[in-house]
Amino acid sequence: MSTLIELQLLLKWMALFVLFGLLILSPRTSASCSDARSSREDAERFRVEQAAAFRPKRPPHIIFILTDDQGFNDIGYHSRDIRSPTLDKLASEGVRLENYYVQPLCTPSRSQLITGRYQIHTGLQHSIIRPRQPSCLPLDVVTLPQRLQEAGYSTHMVGKWHLGFYRKDCLPTRRGFHTYFGSLTGSVDYYTYGSCDGKSLCGFDLHEGESVAWGKGGKYSTHLYTQRVRKILATHDSTSQPLFIFLSLQAVHTPLKPPKEYIYPYRRMGNVPRRKYAAMVSIVDEAVRNITYALRKYGFYRNSVVIFSTDNGAQPLTGGSNWPLRGCKGTYWEGGIRGVGFVHSPLIRHRRRVSRALIHITDWYPTLVGLAGGNVSQHQGLDGFDVWPTISEGKESPRMEILHNIDPLHRRSWGSLKDGYGLWDTTVQAAIRVGDWKLLTGDPGHGDWVPPQVLTNFPSSWWHLERQIEKKRKSVWLFNVTGDPCERHDLAAHRPDVVKELLARLALYNRTAIPVRYPPDDTRANPSLNGGAWRPWVSEDEEEENWDGIYYKRGKNRKRKKCRLCKLQSFFKKLNLKIMSKQIQDSSAIGHHLQ
């Protein structure tokens, strides 16, 4: 009798288990079933606990090195043309990331690194922040260094900011860094630190904390920034407090001005821009060698994590190379967004390997906060995942998809809602990857495959040599980027089922987007009105303007018509954002479904 009762109980448990499994696996029912939702929350808690199990016992010292415009083919382990022995050695002894994604431009990558959020969730989905724009990283978003400060870290930033500075609250020292030394704009001269917005509007751009660092120029920026990092390491007690250093190098961004002695080893390289560019990579390599030497010298190395990453793809016409990938900086082809990156640390359990796990630049936020001992959950509005178990143990990546971006201000003159199967307006520039599949709509940017330059000069007319000339104007592309990373074979016409699924994902993400913040230039930003330097120009007591629903494009303001219900609509939009964000998490199983 007891055996029969036990058997009946076992059958009931098996039935419940099967029902539970169906709820988890079905992306259509998961968004509406509270039981499935709670089970996913349990799974999320389990994943967080699992990640915690792989964390170091003590909070490690974290050194994050970000280069500027370094292409996929601009490092020694990808190209024989480039001499980067230190970077190659650190990558080979750590974990090389070969399925790692960044954004196609400077500000977008930096904003996603610092916030752990996609651009559509910060209002920075269009272009970059220009020097005269009254815009910056949203002040209500808690940044990565702020979270690390909460965890007891001493936080320092050296190098390029490019996240806005129109008011003091936007400065690095107000966004989580105890100290800052570097440039606020997107591009400066490597020696004079002059920065121009256009041909005639120029000013000095080197800052120490919240003050202009007059008199500290004259030295090549990579050397100057390296010197500052070594000084921080030399004066900090490695045993008393964990350290976070964000070294955001200007190199290898234009202008191409390396010291002559670094060009000489590349004298046999025919193309002059490529020769200078390669020399600048070698200077970066030397800088990383000096920094890792200092880590060992001052007792940081044994409990340190060094992360190396580019911010976007290279520009082939100015010496860089993304070969054999398609596209360049500023595009959503793989050449613009698949980044060079690696992690080096004695704390990694399974070292000396190449990882092809899917990782995105937003993942560093929860990963580093997790390493610091903080508690990060997907329910805090983050789009990133804690990938430390993936890096350290070789576990499967928790990330199944990446929203590369949705830019409603960037539209092409062809495409339609009809072309998007009634799900998506294909005039809008957008890109998403789910599993092996990548979908692009609108204008992804110039889709060239440019081999490394070998001629003395590279005529701009040759830029179009290998471009595919479409018989009809396209606004939708689909690629299996796992099997076709160079994006040679468009499968949109052959797999309409996948196209529809990914278009639906774009539409779902778009419902969580906040208005684009891209205001017109402010004449008060002119350096001549601010002592000859780029610095904050809006007073601290001046009220923040409400940019909800205001867009700026091609030199003109574009405003929605005012209505009495605008505030109410804004409230419900924010409420909808929270609801839709949860639905996106709930339906993340689509990544498994599409593979």
From TrEMBL:
Residue ranges of the TM segments: none
InterPro entries, A to Z: Alkaline_phosphatase_core_sf, ARSB, Sulfatase_CS, Sulfatase_N
Cofactor: Ca(2+)
Source organism superkingdom: Eukaryota
Entries under PROSITE patterns matching the protein: SULFATASE_1, SULFATASE_2
Pfam families assigned: Sulfatase
Organism (species): Sinocyclocheilus rhinocerous
Listed name of the protein: Arylsulfatase I-like
Sulfatase N-terminal domain segment(s): 60-373
